């Protein structure tokens, strides 16, 4: 009976594979330092450190009253251009119906007038898009959903240069950056199971390798892999055991 149990344990260990010791650091899956390319005075500051934001949310807006006025003017010009184009079109179509009995030069004049009016409308649309683009550049939007990790700007400050205004990290999505002895690099595959425990916590968690880095750290001869997980604070660390081949 004891011999049978011992053989079963050996077979189980063989099937499970070798357990490879690793350490890990917890980092956000996505991280970005955010800035504006347009200079100006901060008019609206919508978030603070710890704020959770959705992708596309406006985090900050600089003074843009002149651009808002420019858009209003561009819209009025577009409205006028559309009216003139419509009038030119109706006139052109009316003369087209009787072009066989009117002077060719007169027909050409109305054709040209319609084309000019159509071009003016296209130009007005382009001008409006340009003004809207300038306005959008005064608003800093979140490129992905996450949490504000740091803020380096205050209401009324001047936005100048390329310094980071916010640091945005994904949340609750994080990843474990595992470091292990390079001799085990070829023993792992994407999908290899991992047991891990965050330092200071008793709970053991389970995961799997999502990415294996192809290179080795030349200084410490350590290989690297990633495990995707959630609901662990970035900056923590711990120990893991990877089930190899």
What does this entry look like structurally?
It contains 3 helices and 14 strands. The protein is an alpha+beta fold and 245 residues long. The strands form 3 sheets. A 6-stranded antiparallel β-barrel has the order 1-10-13-12-11-14. It has a 4-stranded antiparallel beta sheet with strand order 2-9-7-4, with no helix packed on it. The two termini are 29 Å apart. The chain has helices spanning 2-16, 65-96, 104-136; strands at residues 19-28, 31-34, 40-45, 52-53, 58-62, 139-141, 146-151, 158-159, 166-169, 173-181, 193-198, 205-212, 222-230, 237-243. The radius of gyration is 32 Å and the shape is elongated.
Q: State the low-pLDDT regions, or none.
A: 5-15
CATH fold assignment of the largest domain: Elongation Factor Tu (Ef-tu), domain 3
- What general outline do the C-alpha atoms trace? elongated
Helix/strand order, N-terminal first: HEEEEEHHEEEEEEEEE
In the CATH hierarchy, what is the architecture of the largest domain at level 2? Beta Barrel
Beta-strand percent range: 25-35%
- Classified in CATH, the superfamily of the largest domain is Efflux pump adaptor protein, beta barrel domain
Q: Please give the largest β-sheet.
A: 6 strands, antiparallel, barrel
Query: Which structural class do you get from the secondary structure elements?
Result: alpha+beta
Count of DSSP E strands? 14
Mean pLDDT: 90
Which percent range fits the helix content? 25-40%
Radius of gyration: 32 Å
Distance between the termini: 29 Å
Integer tally of domains: 3
How many H/I helical runs?
A: 3
- Could you give the order of strands across the largest sheet? 1-10-13-12-11-14
- For the record, the CATH class of the largest domain is Mainly Beta
